[in-house]
Amino acid sequence: GAAKRRRLLMYPHDQGNLLTCVNASQVADHALKSNYAATVFTKLDQADFMNRVARRYKAYADLVTASDFAKGARWISQAMIGGDKILGPNVHSILAVRGYDILNLDEYMESFNDVSAAPERLIRRVVQSVATNALKTLFPMDMLGESSGAQPFSHIFAPAGNSEQALVYYTDIRFLVPTSIDKLRMITGSRGADRGRMREAYGQMTGADPMTGLSIIDLCLPFLADMGEESWQTGTGLNEDEIIVEVTMAVNPAIVWKNLLEPTTNEVFDLPKGKKGTSANVWGDMFMTNEPLHEKMVKDGQGHYLNLLRLCYHWSHDKSKEIHGL
Fold first, then answer.
1. What is the pTM of this model?
2. DSSP state, 231?
């Protein structure tokens, strides 16, 4: 079931304030588990919220990871090894990328304002810069830019063609607000906010379904701001006027492995004895013929990694030979 599935998060290497932001995310996860009522500010009631999250998570997980009734995706679907067709290993973790941005309190408050253009501006900033920056850890930049047309990011979130797969299955936006929930309610003067305008703008930009493809949650981290000058978090880099926007996107592993391997099939190389060879020959021949090393890897419990390397080698090698007619 979904409970057994792990999630692997990738962060962009050039993310500013990464440590502060990641710590805040972990604090938020912990707060959600232990003190829900004082953490979630907007008024989606708890059961509904947990339901939505679990449902979306399961739907995504069934696309990707194997369970009792779902086949699951594979890393490297198949390759021919020694005349046998070998299937790649199943994907067992949900793969997601996460990026951060910082808002000040005024910008955050404006995101509730359904008659201004602020919610749209914020979504544009999230999709255009935060999401693109996070996705570039796994996808080449030429897949990520805007396309022309009404929904400039639909090729990433909801491609129209049947043959094309989405790069991103769903998006989770969390606002981590370092203040207490009572303070926040006092400032906003409201207890509930559905963020309808943000959802609309998201739908228009990405073509994805804004109800099932996007979740927006506001979390107060009450034990961050209320502790005063002499508290332990003086100097932790959190400030009541800095609201962290955390954007997490569950990505499609089938496209990830292809993007990592396909560039290796582009070129042909000169091998020592005047032969032409593939990039797999260059990096892998020594390794593939090193039987003692293979035995040692298996003995050390690295057999699954060895198989993955074998699949990489053969997939890339066969594909290159086919493309360049070697």
1. 0.80
2. S
